[in-house]
Write a structure and sequence with these properties.
Helix 2 crosses helix 3 (about 75-85) and helix 2 (about 45-60) crosses helix 4. The relative contact order is 0.18. The chain has 2 domains: about 1-30; about 30-125, Orthogonal Bundle (Muramoyl-pentapeptide Carboxypeptidase, domain 1), CATH 1.10.101.10. The chain has helices at about 1-25, 45-60, 75-85, 100-110, 120-125. The chain has 5 helices and no strands. It has about 130 residues and is mainly alpha-helical. This is Peptidoglycan binding-like domain-containing protein.
């Protein structure tokens, strides 16, 4: 029984790697590693949330405040997420799930359509696609 679980795990890992390789080669957007992001989280996904918040400030300076891009999801980042969720008519919970992640990715993409400024953000946000 243990061997079949190991084989199944290895097969799943290989399938994930193959999907990531195909996506990277085609340039399509796909979130393969990102989970939902919320207050207390750290890392590159959080940095991408903060980048999107700062870009959103350019469009809605009275509604979205800038935040420091420090990879730590604190209260100011949560406030920025809520502001963007409010603008887009999403649930205002301050959590970046797939729907909010899609909106954040669209914001980043509008300022960086080729993914040259923030290439990791195209992989590190949770999205529906």
């Amino acid at each position: 029984m243990r061997l079949s679980k190991r084989i199944a795990g290895a097969a799943a890992t290989l399938a994930s790697a193959a999907a990531l390789t195909v996506t990277a080669q085609t340039g399509a957007h796909a979130s393969t590693t990102a989970d939902w992001l919320s207050k207390g989280d750290t890392g590159s996904g959080v940095s991408c949330v903060q980048v999107a918040i700062n870009y959103a400030h350019n469009w809605w300076p009275g509604s979205v405040a800038t935040v420091r891009t420090d990879a730590m999801f604190g209260q100011l980042t949560a406030n920025g997420v809520v502001a963007i969720q409010r603008i887009y008519g999403l649930s205002q919970d301050g959590i970046v799930g797939p729907r909010t992640g899609d909106r954040l990715w669209q914001i980043i993409h509008s300022f960086d359509p080729k993914g040259e400024l923030h290439p990791d953000c195209y992989w590190d946000l949770p999205t529906l696609s």
